[in-house]
From TrEMBL:
TM region(s), chain numbering: 9-28, 34-57
This protein's record includes keyword Transmembrane helix: yes
Source organism: Parabacteroides faecalis
Superkingdom of origin organism: Bacteria
Protein's recorded name: MFS transporter
Keyword Transmembrane: yes
Keywords of the record: Membrane, Transmembrane, Transmembrane helix
Length: 63
């Protein structure tokens, strides 16, 4: 895989994860606020990990 493909895949994963966890947060917010907070934290961690991966992919392909 080349840099462009990996970048597109990671950006797609970031967007899908953020949208999915946002929807799950708003669905659970009224019924179980503690679970909604947990879901939001997990989504934030995943997005942060994808952003770090995106940084390392771009850094390694600058040769």
């Amino acid at each position: 895989m080349n840099k462009k493909t990996l970048t597109r895949v990671l950006i797609g994963l970031i967007i899908l994860t953020a949208v999915g966890f946002s929807i799950a947060y708003f669905v659970l917010k009224g019924e179980k606020p503690w679970l909604a907070f947990f879901v939001a934290c997990c989504g934030g961690v995943l997005v942060f990990n994808f952003l770090i991966s995106l940084f390392f992919v771009n850094k390694n392909f600058k040769k």
